[in-house]
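Predict structure. Chain length: 188.
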Amino acid sequence: MKKIFNYITVAIIALTTATVFTSCDEDEMEAWTLDGTWTGYVETYYRDRWGWEGSQYRTAMYFDKRNTYGGTGYEVDYNVNSRYDDYYYSDFDWEVKNGEIIIYYADANWAPTYIYDYKLTSSYFDGYMDDGTHRDIRFRFNSDNSFRWSDYRRGYRAITRGASEDGKQWYASGAFAKRLEELRSVER
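Prediction complete.
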């Protein structure tokens, strides 16, 4: 009888443990892991968004988890040779939904970006994104909690400034501001 009781106890513990671990779904785990700063390169990114090509551009993204599946954040794209003069900064909202990460930028000029087919660990974030161009845009980021956001958040060097209705900010400076004005004049 004692042996049967031990087997039942072990089975109950196993079922309880399985239930506890599966109650936190995959999207929620991805949101927890994404929380923080990521820096790296986005291949062909500037050819799509800015009309530029080259490896001298870098991207940093900060994801701040505010709820179960998403939150807010900000991104800066900059020229590594003139990082404080030529950059683009934008706030965004984000969510993890059905295995995709969706980014909604404050600057309404850009469509939502969908991140898919990605690998995410506590130190590495690699995958593909679609910024509305329906192309597989490859990115490779590393966790970087030493990035100095204060150099960009104030926008004190910004030539072009904007804010969305909810107060989210975006700035363009130097070559990025000049290119943004060129893109806007083509749209008009």
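Summary: Residues 17-23, 155-159 have pLDDT under 50 and may be disordered.
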